[in-house]
Amino acid sequence: STKPTADPTTSAEPSTAPSNAPSTEPSVAPSTAPSADPSSTPEAPKSGWETKDGHRYYYEKGELKKDWAKIDGTWYYFGTDGAATTGTQKVKNALYSFDDQGAMRANTWVEDKDTWYYANPDGDLAANTWKLVNGSWYHFNADSKMETGLVTVNGTRYYLDPATGAMADGRWVKDDSTWYYANPDGAIATGWKQVDGAWYHFDSKGAMTPKGWVASGGKWYYVEDSGAMAASKWLDVDGHWYYVGSDGSVATGWKQVDGAWYYLQPNGAMTTGWVMDGGKWYYLNANGSMATGWKQVDAAWYYLQPNGAMTTGWATIDGGRFYFHNSGALIR
């Protein structure tokens, strides 16, 4: 066989190294080489508050807080970008209020853009509900806004002070030029209501009925200037006299007042002059009182019996005999 040309006693190491092989001795120290100063330590993870572009962020062990977080006993809400929420904001279907540092308000009044809210103890703003605060009741609508003025809640009307929002109870209230009465439970009165011994009438919306006639339960009543129902007195209305009894209803038919009898028409107006009732004639004086005894009317004389009925035919009066025409006029 042919003898190898290479001498087997020579080294097998390549005469040149691959171009991508590393140098056996680097000319400069690697950038990752540890510092020769043994006193230096790695940078600690970021923790605490950071303000950037007007927003506050909170880090805990290097982690940016998001969602709800309780920090030093105070609750904060951080958005998806980690910024602390401020102002009145909706969080997961409920409204909350946060101050300018992001701290959630709780168990306190909140004013935002001239609108008042109330933050419950757990922070959510009261909504569509009544709230008792410092002895007064307040109502908040579905948007959590404190309501004022006349409001209807579950079919019942209430009056909430225009300035404070506090519900009125057990007192008169005036809205524009109309008077209302708030019952002790706050509900606005409707129908008849006795206040301080006097009766008042309110319509279906609670407005006090002004001066004038009121039809109620098949009877008529009269409301005076003050709004109080007239009772047990004579009333001069539009040139006609009426009498209202102790219950305030207008009297009709025969009515005895202070010992005298009066006849009041079906509409309550007092009658004067002749009136027939039950087939008999009666005479009512100019003041409305029923006449008895001798009475001269239009130059003719009549005799009215003690019960007021006009006499006809023969009659013995004070021992004398008299004859009266069918018209009641004395003939002799």
Explain how this protein is built:
The radius of gyration is 50 Å and the shape is rod-shaped. A hairpin with a 2-residue loop joins β1 and β2. The chain has a domain at 272-332: left handed beta-beta-3-solenoid (Ribbon), CATH 2.10.270.10. It is built from no helices and 29 strands. The strands form 14 sheets. The chain has a 3-stranded antiparallel β-sheet with strand order 1-2-3, with no helix packed on it. The chain has strands spanning 48-52, 55-60, 63-64, 67-71, 74-78, 87-91, 94-98, 108-112, 115-119, 129-133, 136-140, 149-153, 156-160, 171-175, 178-182, 191-195, 198-202, 212-216, 219-223, 233-237, 240-244, 253-257, 260-264, 273-277, 280-284, 293-297, 300-304, 313-317, 320-324. The protein is mostly beta strands.
Q: Key features?
A:
mainly beta, three-stranded antiparallel beta sheet, two-stranded antiparallel ribbon, single chain, disordered N terminus, 332 residues
